[in-house]
Design a protein that fits this description.
- The mean pLDDT is about 80.
- The strands form 2 sheets. A 3-stranded mixed beta sheet has the order 3-4-5. Strands 1-2 form a two-stranded antiparallel ribbon.
- The radius of gyration is 32 Å and the shape is rod-shaped.
- Helix 5 links the parallel strand 4 and strand 5.
- By secondary structure, it is α+β, with helices and mostly antiparallel strands.
């Protein structure tokens, strides 16, 4: 039933069917669009997961003879040294995310650096920063690999 001005107009069966068909069409279009968007975000469950680039390096760290972050001493001097080296590396925006994520392990005033970097220049930069904080090249163990 429509109301035009002050007059009420009754809808006949044909008009009611057309209105119902319009609503159904709009509903189906919206439903189809939602399904299309959902399907575009779905992932292929049969696709093999991508392995991280440094899987082999992480396997090396499982060796009981290698220094790992959980072996870092909890004394204030080692924590402060690690913090200063990390800050120095993170402040250098020219380094890659690989270099920013290098593992820094301090034990009794000695530092071990582990992990991949993108170039020889990055390796040198990270080592120089660690030596600067540690005070002596003999206190820094280099286990950095280059992974371009």
């Amino acid at each position: 039933m429509f109301r035009k001005s002050n007059k009420t107009i009754e809808q006949g069966p044909q008009e009611k069917a057309m209105t119902q068909m319009k609503y159904t069409t709009v509903f189906l279009v919206i439903l189809f669009c939602c399904m299309l968007v959902t399907a575009s975000y779905a992932q292929d469950v049969n696709q093999a997961p991508v392995q991280p680039d440094n899987t082999q390096v992480n396997m090396r760290d499982r060796n009981a003879n290698e220094a790992t972050a959980d072996q870092q001493e909890n004394n204030e001097g080692d924590r402060e040294m690690t913090k200063e080296i990390r800050k120095s590396i993170m402040d250098d925006k020219s380094l890659s995310s690989y270099a920013h994520n290098i593992k820094i392990i301090s034990q009794d005033g000695n530092v071990t650096l582990k992990g991949p970097v993108r170039s020889g220049q990055e390796k040198k930069t990270v080592l120089d920063k660690a030596i600067s904080v540690a005070g002596n090249a003999d206190k820094v163990t280099d286990q950095i690999s280059i992974n371009p």
